[in-house]
Amino acid sequence: MENFKQYCELYTRGLTNDEDEPLKIVHEKISDRWEVAVTVSSNNFQQISFVNGIATTKVGTLSPAA
């Protein structure tokens, strides 16, 4: 695996949309430090997120600025 987009494609390999087409990934390299990738969930809402290579599996909330 050479880059972040290829890593993301591991999650969608073999999955198709309602028209039986492979799921597409929208990927953007924003800077040397930020990359974002998005695709649709195959059933219900699902998310996978990483920060600095660490899976962020616990959902957090935003609190109002003090």
Overview of the structural elements:
This protein is an alpha+beta fold and about 70 residues long. The chain has one domain (about 5-55). It contains one helix and four strands. The strands form two sheets. A two-stranded antiparallel sheet has the order 1-2. A hairpin with a 5-residue loop joins strand 1 (about 25-30) and strand 2 (about 35-40).
Sequence-ordered SSE layout with sheet pairings:
Layout: H1 4-12, E1 26-29, E2 35-38, E3 50-51, E4 54-55
Antiparallel strand pairs: 1-2, 3-4
Mean pLDDT: 80
N-to-C CA distance: 43 Å
Secondary structure category? alpha+beta
Helical coverage, percent range: 10-25%
In total, the number of strands is: 4
pLDDT < 50 stretches: none
Describe the main β-sheet briefly: 2 strands, antiparallel
Strand order of the largest sheet: 1-2
Number of domains: 1
Strand content: 15-25%
Q: What is the 3D form?
A: globular
Number of helices: 1
SSE run = HEEEE
Radius of gyration, in angstroms, nearest whole number: 14 Å
Could you name the key traits of this structure?
single chain, two-stranded antiparallel sheet, alpha+beta, 66 residues, 1 helix, two-stranded antiparallel ribbon, 4 strands
Summarize the structure.
By secondary structure, the chain is α+β, with helices and mostly antiparallel strands.
